[in-house]
Amino acid sequence: MIRLAAVVLDDDEISELQGVFASNPDYWRLSGDLEPGAVTLEAVRDMVRAEAGVEGHEVLTARDGNGALVGYVELLLNHPRDGYPWIGFLLVHGEHRRKGLGRAIAGAVEARLRGCGATAIGLGVLENNPEALAFWTALGCVELDRRPDVAKGRPTIVMRKALGSDVGG
Ligand SMILES: CC(C)(COP(=O)(O)OP(=O)(O)OC[C@H]1O[C@@H](n2cnc3c(N)ncnc32)[C@H](O)[C@@H]1OP(=O)(O)O)[C@@H](O)C(=O)NCCC(=O)NCCS
């Protein structure tokens, strides 16, 4: 059972988010978005706050049945290129990989977007992140295109998933 909620960014939540961010040094190494050895409270607060402040973006925490913060999600509600909502980023706590959390969080996101009338979702996977490509492929996403990402020009695989009536992959 996963509960999604808009970020609050009080001290407790920032501290929980830092735990999730700091447990993923490999991702920061490949994306270059944060310095893997310097995932401080301040760096996390700045990054999340900047994302949450963008018009048309939604930034969510994902909590498990015990209330523990196990994941982080960034959404772009209406991509200017295709009009679909995009999952900009999904991060699962690094100590809890391959336990189905990513699948459960993505399923909750899909249900939320389907509830808003979305018929498909888009996302981009960095070409140097084969594990994420395997994950999204397992969830039923298909490759549409390859192009540099808007943020930093990194080689990216553009994927899409049609949203049927069932939750999850
Ligand atoms: C990618 C990520 C979200 C996956 O989360 P997760 O909780 O470990 O994934 P799940 O346990 O739900 O995996 C579901 C399925 O995806 C596939 N999968 C997930 N991780 C995989 C990996 N490292 N290698 C190959 N397949 C993988 C498997 O088919 C898996 O099912 P299985 O475990 O029954 O074989 C997580 O590894 C993560 O946060 N990575 C760092 C950030 C990132 O790369 N985010 C995506 C960029 S948008």
Keywords:
single chain, Aminopeptidase, seven-stranded mixed sheet, globular, binds coenzyme A
Characterise this structure.
The protein has five helices and seven strands; from the N terminus they run βαααβββαβαββ. The protein is of the alpha+beta class and 169 residues long. The protein has a single domain, classed as Gcn5-related N-acetyltransferase (GNAT) (Aminopeptidase). The protein has a seven-stranded mixed beta sheet with strand order 1-2-3-4-5-7-6, sandwiched between helices. The two termini are 15 Å apart. It binds coenzyme A. Coenzyme A binds next to β4, α4 and α5.
Number of helices in the DSSP assignment:
5
Mean pLDDT: 96
The largest β sheet comes out as: 7 strands, mixed
Please give the CATH architecture.
3-Layer(aba) Sandwich
Q: Into which percent range does the helicity of residues fall?
A: 25-40%
Bound molecules: coenzyme A
Q: What proportion of the residues form beta strands (DSSP E)?
A: 25-35%
* Low-confidence region ranges: none
Q: Ends: how far apart?
A: 15 Å
Identify the CATH class.
Answer: Alpha Beta
| Strand order across the largest sheet | 1-2-3-4-5-7-6
Number of domains: 1
Beta strand count: 7
H/E series: EHHHEEEHEHEE
Structural class by sheet pairing and helices = alpha+beta
Shape designation: globular
CATH topology: Aminopeptidase
The CATH superfamily label reads Gcn5-related N-acetyltransferase (GNAT)
The rounded Rg comes to 15 Å
